[in-house]
Amino acid sequence: xxxxxxxxxxxxxxxxxxxxxxxxxxxxxxxxxxxxxxxxxxxxxxxxxxxxxxxxxxxxxxxxxxxxxxxxxxxxxxxxxxxxxxxxxxxxxxxxxxxxxxxxxxxxxxxxxxxxxxxxxxxxxxxxxxxxxxxxxxxxxxxxxxxxxxxxxxxxxxxxxxxxxxxxxxxxxxxxxxxxxxxxxxxxxxxxxxxxxxxxxxxxxxxxxxxxxxxxxxxxxxxxxxxxxxxxxxxxxxxxxxxxxxxxxxxxxxxxxxxxxxxxxxxxxxxxxxxxxxxxxxxxxxxxxxxxxxxxxxxxxxxxxxxxxxxxxxxxxxxxxxxxxxxxxxxxxxxxxxxxxxxxxxxxxxxxxxxxxxxxxxxxxxxxxxxxxxxxxxxxxxxxxxxxxxxxxxxxxxxxxxxxxxxxxxxxxxxxxxxxxxxxxxxxxxxxxxxxxxxxxxxxxxxxxxxxxxxxxxxxxxxxxxxxxxxxxxxxxxxxxxxxxxxxxxxxxxxxxxxxxxxxxxxxxxxxxxxxxxxxxxxxxxxxxxxxxxxxxxxxxxxxxxxxxxxxxxxxxxxxxxxxxxxxxxxxxxxxxxxxxxxxxxxxxxxxxxxxxxxxxxxxxxxxxxxxxxxxxxxxxxxxxxxxxxxxxxxxxxxxxxxxxxxxxxxxxxxxxxxxxxxxxxxxxxxxxxxxxxxxxxxxxxxxxxxxxxxxxxxxxxxxxxxxxxxxxxxx
Length: 716
Description:
This protein is α+β, with helices and mostly antiparallel strands and 716 residues long. Among the domains are: 208 residues, Glycoside hydrolase, family 65, N-terminal domain (Beta-galactosidase, Chain A, domain 5, Distorted Sandwich); 215 residues, Alpha/alpha barrel (Glycosyltransferase), CATH 1.50.10; 71 residues, Maltose phosphorylase, domain 3. Helices cover 29% and strands 31% of the residues. The strands form nine sheets. Strands 1, 4, 5, 6, 7, 12, 16, 17 and 19 form a nine-stranded antiparallel sheet that branches. A nine-stranded antiparallel sheet has the order 8-9-10-11-20-15-14-13-18. Strands 22, 23, 24, 25, 26 and 36 form a six-stranded antiparallel sheet that branches.
C-alpha cells in the first residue's frame, strides 16, 4: 500500500511480513518505507489480557480488505475481536495505524496490546544492510529512533504503559547503542458498550524531516477521522481520469490493463520537496532509478499526468553531472541512475541518459506546446556532448565501458570503499556485458539523435541538420554491421575490432521497435525471437537457452524479464504482426491478473516462478501500458501539429475494441474500433486531426467521426 511519500509492505493476514527471494536467499522485507529509507521491519501486534497476549497473524486472522492505499484485517482472540487498519496518507512520510478491539463475551474491561517494532533505518539503495547502533529518545509523547542520518518517530493514543528494548525494560529518556527491536505495551480500556481504540502514527525517513516537525505526529493523530478519506481521495481522483480499455474479444487484456494502471500509480513518489518521480519497485528498489523512470514516463504521459512528467524531468536534470564524478560512476552531462532523499545519488549506466531527449519530445507531442523544449535546451546540449564523447572515432559507434575501473581508482584515492558489486568493467548496473558496442545502445543513440534533431528544430535552433546527418550515418550502416546471418537475428554487441559477440538476447528487438531495422530483416528478427529458446509461455528469456552461458536462475543470463516481453510485443506491432503482439500482451496481462494487480520483475527461465524478483516493478507494468496505446492502437500524438496518428493493430479474429478518456493537450479523445474503421470523439478547444494510413478526418469537439484505417469492410 502506497501514498505519495511512504509505503508499507504487509502479508495477506494483515501482518507486516514478506519473506522474499533476494539474490538467491529469502529475506524479510515487511515494514514501512519512506523517503528512500526502510523505517522498520515487521511491526507486529499482540492482543489479550494483561497476563497473556496472542500475536495477530495467521492463527487469529479472519478476513482482509485491501486497497492500494490501505489494508484492513479482522482477527479473533479468545473473548475479543480486533480490526487492524493501516493507511498510507498523502503528503505524510509514514503510515497511520488503528486497532479497534471489542469484547465478545463482555468480560474484559481492559485489553493489553503489545507492539514490537524491529529497527531498520537503512537506505533501500543498500540492499540487505541495516545499522546495528541506534539513538533512542522519548520527547513528550514521541518515541524517536535515529541512525546515520535516518530517523523515525512513533506516537500513540493512548500513551504506552511499558516499554522494553531487546527485552530489557526502559523508562524512556535517551538510550544509545546496539539495538534490534522495541516492544511497547498498552493497557486499553474497553467501554461497556463500545470498542477500545489504539492509534499510532509512524513516520520519518531523513533525520532532518523528523527533527523539523516536532508536532507532526500529534497532528496526524488528531485527524484520525479523516484518515480514510484522505488516503482514498487521490486514488479515486486518479481512477476517474485514467483511460479505459475495452477488448470484448480478449477481456483478460482489458482487465490486465486496468490493473496495470493502478500498479503504475502505486509507484508515484515525492520523497521530499523538489524531488519527484516514481520508485523503481518493491520491495528492494523503492528509490528513484532514472533508467526505470525513463521506461515508465511514456505510460505516465498516456495516463495524462503531464505535471508529474514535468516535475520528474526537473528532478532528473537537476542532478545531471556538471563534471566528471568518478567516485559516483558519472561523467559530464550524464543523468543519475539512482536518487534517494538526502540526496543519495549514483550514476553509471550505459543507457539512462540516452532516453531523456525522447521523453522531452514525447512531452511536446502529448501537450502540443513546443515552448516546453526551452527549459531543457542547455541540459540537452550537455546530453549531446556526453553522447558524442562516447562515440568511438574509429568505428563511429556508440561505446561504453570503464566506469567501474574509474570508480575503483577514485575510491582508492580516498580510502577503502567497497561497492559490493561484482560487475564487468562497464557500468555498475549492467550485469550483462554491455561494453564496447552493444546493439541496444546503438538503437538508443540513434533515437536520441533523432529526438534531439526534432527538439532543436522545434526550439528554433540551427543544429537539426547536423543531428539528422549523424543519425542517418548510424542508420545507414547499422544493419550491415549487426546482421547475424546464421541466426536471422542481430549480434548482441561488437568489440572494438569489429568482431561480434554471438549472444542471442531480446535486446536486439529494441532496434525493431524503434524502426532502425525494417522490412524483411525486422520480420526475421521477430520470428527468430519467437522461437522457444528465447520465448517461453510466460515471457522472454534474457539469453537464449541454447547459449553455453545460459542459466535459468541468472538475472541477465536466462531469467525471463517482463520488460523483454513488452519489447517483443512492441516489435511485433511495429512490423504489423498483430496476433503475435497481442499474445505477448496477454502474457503480461496474465501475470497482472494472477498476481492480483502486481507484475514481477522476472521469473525463472525454466518455469513460470518468480525468482530474485521485485513483486512490483515499474518496467514490468509501464511498457505493457505503452504498448497498448502505441502498438495495439498504433497511436502517435503530434499535438504540436494538431494531429493524432492512429494505425491500429488488432487481430483478424477481433470484432471491436474501445479506448476512452485519452488525455492529450487541452482535451480528451475517445476511440472505438470495428474492423476497418476507427470512430473518434474529441472534447477540447478547436478541432483535432485524426490521421490513419489511408487518410485523415477532422474531429470537431463533441462530434463522433469515422476514420477508415484499413481496406477491410466492416461487417454489417
